């Protein structure tokens, strides 16, 4: 609530600062005008004649400090180190210096008060600088209003939040899929049916929360957590953590993927044939590819399938469902996941997450 008073306090402090600075300048020019008068000039000259002793003492003190610095400082150390060459002589001089520094301290205190008044008058319009010393800044209501206003600005202009929103805007501009332009506005528009969208969200929910499968269908047993933190598959150690024990040799088998020759990915945007025909043709080529490489393990088949098809699996789900080439959504899923069981859909979600994270790092 104090941040609401910042703008009014700023205007009030600025007006008072303007008045005080104007008065200070007027007083300064008035003093300069008085010095032009003969009686004032005579008074100043007489004071300077009597104050010659103070001037001599000030000059003597300044020279003494410079001489003491040269005599008592140990030059074997750097300038940043406090080093005294003769401590006994230093203590004796510090005792007698007390009587010389006493009148100097008195006049220094007067100058300190005058400097504080001048700086305080000049800095009064600056509400971001408190005229109070440390420990008493809570008494400065204008400075507190400024601090509260900064907290409000930080809450609504958080740099992390702004960067996140900018990333969303950039992603929308670079990938205009499912976005329709209406004048200067960009409105999100779904390009597939509501039923397929709802089924896809259901599949995501069950994949990310496999324990809900048993609540939805009593005959489906929820996966049990792994008993170990990792599993070894050949020369590759796979972290399984929260995944099931039968998901141990998933897509992290990078040694196998790097040793295989390149295989053409599935093309979703080819208009020569339908998506279903292209999918059947691609899966046949993929099965022949596995036979040629003598890969018979079902887990490795599943890992390589997801490795080569990539994130285009979501596009296959949409296209097969919307074009009517698949009679229902479940059949489209079965056509894609024929190499692995539906209980392992969480593997595919993990793969999509890692692929997106790798794509983001390469993009940066």
UniProtKB/TrEMBL annotation:
Q: What is this protein called?
A: Uncharacterized protein
Q: Could you name the Gene Ontology cellular component terms for this entry?
A: plasma membrane
UniProt subcellular location = Cell membrane
What membrane topology was assigned to this protein in its record?
Multi-pass membrane protein
What biological-process GO terms show up in the record? vitamin A import into cell
Supply the alphabetized keyword list.
Cell membrane, Membrane, Receptor, Transmembrane, Transmembrane helix, Transport
Query: What transmembrane ranges does the database entry give?
Result: none
Entry superkingdom: Eukaryota
The question of whether Transport is a record keyword is answered with yes
Q: Which Pfam families match?
A: RBP_receptor
Secreted listed as a keyword: no
- Any GO molecular function: signaling receptor activity
């Amino acid at each position: 609530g104090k941040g609401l008073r910042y703008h009014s306090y700023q205007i009030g402090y600025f007006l008072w600062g303007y008045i005080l600075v104007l008065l200070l300048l007027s007083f300064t020019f008035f003093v300069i005008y008085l010095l032009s008068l003969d009686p004032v000039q005579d008074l100043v000259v007489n004071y300077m004649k009597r104050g010659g002793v103070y001037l001599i003492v000030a000059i003597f003190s300044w020279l003494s400090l410079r001489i003491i610095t040269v005599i008592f400082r140990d030059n074997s150390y750097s300038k940043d180190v406090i080093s005294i060459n003769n401590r006994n002589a230093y203590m004796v001089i510090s005792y007698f210096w007390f009587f010389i520094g006493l009148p100097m301290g008195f006049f220094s205190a007067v100058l300190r008060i005058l400097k504080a008044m001048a700086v305080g008058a000049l800095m009064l319009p600056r509400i971001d600088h408190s005229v109070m010393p440390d420990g008493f800044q809570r008494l400065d209501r204008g400075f507190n209003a400024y601090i509260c206003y900064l907290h409000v600005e930080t809450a609504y202009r958080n740099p992390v939040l702004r960067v996140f929103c900018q990333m969303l805007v950039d992603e929308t501009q670079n990938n205009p899929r499912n976005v329709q332009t209406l004048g200067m506005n960009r409105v999100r528009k779904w390009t597939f049916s509501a039923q397929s969208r709802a089924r896809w969200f259901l599949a995501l929910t069950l994949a990310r929360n496999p324990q809900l499968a048993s609540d939805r269908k009593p005959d489906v047993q929820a996966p049990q957590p792994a008993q170990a933190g990792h599993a070894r598959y050949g020369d590759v150690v796979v972290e399984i953590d929260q995944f099931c024990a039968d998901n141990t040799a998933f897509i992290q088998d990078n040694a196998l993927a790097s040793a295989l020759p390149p295989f053409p990915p599935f093309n979703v945007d080819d208009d020569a044939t339908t998506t279903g025909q292209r999918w059947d043709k691609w899966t046949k080529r993929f099965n022949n590819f596995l036979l040629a490489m003598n890969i018979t393990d079902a887990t490795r088949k599943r890992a390589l399938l997801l490795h080569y098809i990539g994130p285009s699996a979501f596009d296959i789900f949409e296209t097969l469902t919307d074009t009517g080439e698949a009679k229902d959504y479940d059949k489209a899923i079965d056509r894609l996941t024929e190499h692995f069981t539906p209980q392992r859909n969480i593997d595919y979600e993990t793969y999509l997450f890692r692929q997106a994270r790798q794509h983001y790092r390469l993009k940066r």
